[in-house]
Amino acid sequence: MVFLDRGEIGGRDTLHYRTIGDGPITDEALVSAFPPALPSEAVLAMARSAPGATTTPATVAALPPLVPLNYLAKTETDLQVDEATGLVLRVAQKQQIMAVPAGTDQRIPLTTVELASTEDSVDEAVGQAGTVGTLLWWIGIGGPLIFGVLGVLLIGIAALRHTRGDRHVVPARADIPD
Asked: In angstroms, rounded to a whole number, what is the distance separating the alpha carbons of residues 7 and 164?
């Protein structure tokens, strides 16, 4: 996770982070949805249509008639987190699934999914952060301050009563009339 910058959402100070995950897909159910191999012509057609693709005659000649494929995923997540409470206020995520012909390092994009917080969910998260911030203030500052003042007042009252001789004496059992 990398810190990018500070910002503000709905009057709340935020910290902006980004994570990038890149590696083989380990979910067997997802991997089984894709073909384990494709004919070399299909792989070449996909490779040529990929952004920034460079297909050389040597690459074409090196492919077997049926090309085994590996699958990778790259996930980028942007988080905007409330600085005071740590609650996530806004999320944007992009996940790309790519096929990689065995024996090559060429990544062929198959699908891209982008998810993002809606403005309604951001507004709700900002409201929750405000509530949590208030509770944290009462727990961390307000409550201890009130109890501290009460404690000082009680000590003052006890000291005042002690110095004035305002003591109530409870009579012993023998002194109580029948």
From this structure: 59
Distance linking the first and last C-alpha atoms of the chain: 81
> Rounded to two decimals, what is the model's pTM?
0.66
Q: Is 108 in contact with 97 (CB distance < 8 Å)?
A: no
Instruction: Check if the beta carbon of residue 10 is closer than 8 Å to that of residue 122.
Output: yes
DSSP string, 130-171: HHHHHHHHIIIIIHHHHHHHHHHHHHHHHHHHHHHT--PPPP
Structure tokens at 147: 């109890």
pLDDT per position as a tens digit, 69-122: 989 999 999 999 999 999 999 999 999 998 888 877 778 888 889 999 999 999
What are the structure tokens assigned to 89, written together?
Answer: 């206020």
Query: Which residues, listed in sequence order, are joined to residue 91 by a DSSP beta bridge?
Result: 79
